[in-house]
Specification:
About 80% of the residues lie in helices and about 0% in strands. The longest helix has about 40 residues. It contains 15 helices and no strands. It is mainly alpha-helical and about 425 residues long. The termini are far apart. It has one domain. α11 packs parallel to α15.
Length: about 425
């Protein structure tokens, strides 16, 4: 009953409950918009809501008082942080389409329809479930890397997040746009009136938002996988410098939001989760740069090409985008050592051609930052990630412009 004589525990419990309730407001409104509006306008209902928050806060205070001496209190803080993270993801999934509508109402309406269609497709959940299963499997399988299993698993996790979103995005954009054009339903949509530009951009943004949702969902599971793996296999109890730096800088900020000694221990676990999320977000952002480019290419090609041809071309462009920089390096090395011949010069020319024209997908790779022995500065690496992501935005815009030009020449009648 320590919580009865400790005001800081009561304050900490009420604040923790308040954070959860605030994070739940957007999706509570989405579930029952009419009931939510009536509750907000009714003082009595608001009073009951405040009392409910205080009641939940007292339960939190009891829980903190009971577990205050436990060595697992930081683990409970991680669980709390993961639940809060999941609620914020749901908020983002609900609010993102509305933000697009505010910027461009007509394109946003098309984007919202494509976004909802993406969520409702069994393919979305099948690919997501397969990615989650692979992450779970990656925790227990041995990699025989002599202590570097954690690094291998981390890279595989980022690749799973990227490849799952790429697979869904390319398939969805190839099928959705191509089928609407071939089935003449695009004519009905564009008679609203919605221009071809708004139709294509809206379709692309809707499918891209669904890809963001898949990336963030898999990223949440990746956080847990990277926490569980070292505990499951003690040989993988390694220190990740980037995650440690993020936790050191972010955990004190989170602890300021919760008063009391016990509350701060609990908040330390929450800060651990937030730090891990920030550190891993750089790898997810790099991978999503590839997703954005390939979905833009698939959307542009879908205006002219059927589904099968579109998917094959995207697959070829993916491999060429990764292989071209490697081919250039290998052929340059052979020329420098005098081992290159006539064939080497031709291969070098083709490699340089593809490396110049195609997006440098090799730059969107987290593995050099993971496998290196010298730790990277977190914020210097963050600036690099943002610059590479800016490059992805430029290539995406180019692909969409090409798609708009192709779509203008397409006969829809």
């Amino acid at each position: 009953m320590d919580w009865l004589t400790n005001p800081s525990l009561i304050t900490a419990g009420v604040l923790l409950a308040l954070y959860q309730v605030i994070a739940a407001l957007p999706w509570l409104r989405a579930i029952d918009p009419k009931g939510f509006s009536q509750t907000v306008r009714n003082p009595t209902s608001l009073g009951y809501a405040v009392l409910s928050v205080i009641g939940i806060g007292l339960l939190f205070a009891v829980y903190l008082g009971y577990t205050g001496q436990s060595t697992n209190i930081t683990l409970y803080g991680k669980v709390y942080g993961s639940i809060l993270h999941l609620q914020l993801l749901i908020d983002f999934f609900i609010l993102a389409p509305h933000a697009v509508i505010l910027v461009s109402p007509k394109a946003g309406a098309v984007a919202q329809a494509a976004y909802r269609e993406g969520w409702r497709q069994p393919m979305f959940w099948l690919i997501a479930a397969f990615g989650i299963a692979l992450m779970g499997l990656s925790i227990v399988i041995p990699y025989f890397t002599f202590g570097d299993d954690y690094k291998m698993m981390k890279q595989i996790g980022f690749d799973i997040c990227m490849l799952a979103a790429v697979l869904f995005g390319v398939l969805a954009s190839s099928m959705s746009i191509s089928e609407e054009i071939e089935g003449r339903t695009a004519i009905t949509v564009m008679s609203k009136p919605i221009s071809r530009r708004q139709f294509l951009i809206g379709k692309f943004l809707g499918i891209l938002m669904a890809c963001i949702a898949m990336t963030l969902i898999l990223g949440w599971f990746l956080n847990w996988a990277l926490i569980i793996n070292p505990a499951y296999d003690k040989i993988n109890e390694v220190s990740d410098p980037m995650s440690i730096q993020a936790r050191v800088e972010i955990a004190p900020l989170v602890q300021r939001l919760v008063p009391g000694t016990t509350g701060k221990l609990f908040a330390e676990g929450t800060g651990f989760w937030v730090g891990e999320t920030v550190a891993h977000s750089f790898g997810l952002l790099l991978g999503f740069g590839q997703v954005m480019i390939l979905v833009a290419l698939a959307s542009a090609l879908a205006t002219k090409m059927p589904f099968v041809v579109n998917v094959v071309l995207c697959l070829v462009l993916y491999f060429l985008g990764h292989m071209a920089p490697v081919v250039v390096k290998v052929t340059d090395k052979k020329d420098a050592t005098g081992e290159g011949g006539t064939g080497n010069g031709l291969i070098r020319f083709l490699g340089q051609l593809f490396d110049t024209i195609l997006p440098p997908l090799e730059f969107f790779n987290m593995s050099p930052a993971i496998v290196r022995d010298t730790p990277l500065d977190l914020w210097a690496f963050a600036s690099y990630v943002l610059s590479v992501f800016g490059c992805a935005i430029i290539y995406t815009m180019i692909a969409i412009i090409i798609g708009l030009l192709l779509f203008e020449d397409r006969d829809l009648a």
